[in-house]
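Throughout this review, each integer encodes one residue's backbone shape. One record appears below.

===
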Amino acid sequence: MLKCFDLTGKAVFITGGSQGLGRAFARAFAQSGADLCLISRSEEKLADTCREMEGYGVRCIYHVADILDSAAVQAAVDKAVAAFGRIDCLINNAAANAQHVPLHEIPIADYRRVIDVNLVGTMIVTQAVVPQMIRQGGGAIVNMCSIAGQVFHGLLDPGAYEASKEGLKALTRSMAQNWVQYNIRVNGIAPGYF
């Protein structure tokens, strides 16, 4: 590991951390020496992911939570702070998608669920973590935007995912402006299809 990537003593909180990109992020942070708190809705996948991360010699804890459940999210944050004393980095990775049907046929409940998870859920988690970052003098937040928020392909869903990810870009800018005074850096990254 390059010294510039040494994160020993840092604590990272990852939503959607049990599979896909979330698990890949966890692996990269673990290989760099960071301790991890992962949240997801699947305990079995979380436990499996934590076992893998502990193989890199770091501490890994998990908490089963839906990011729309404020109480469960706060419990996960409290658990991370109790275990590590801090949260240096938040990766807002959890996301939802809708069924692929023509836009005029999507049930509004499905559309609303995607917007809620991808935008409201991100805000719920971030609001739970930011007070700790303020207390400790700063931190870093990375929001998982998407190329789908920039270039519409119509491949993922009938507009809900794309709309939510484009909205997340605006939310990211707002977070960055609001929290720079607390030494909290907020960025969004926009991966393509994988």
About this structure: The radius of gyration is 16 Å. The CA atoms of residues 95 and 118 lie 5 Å apart.
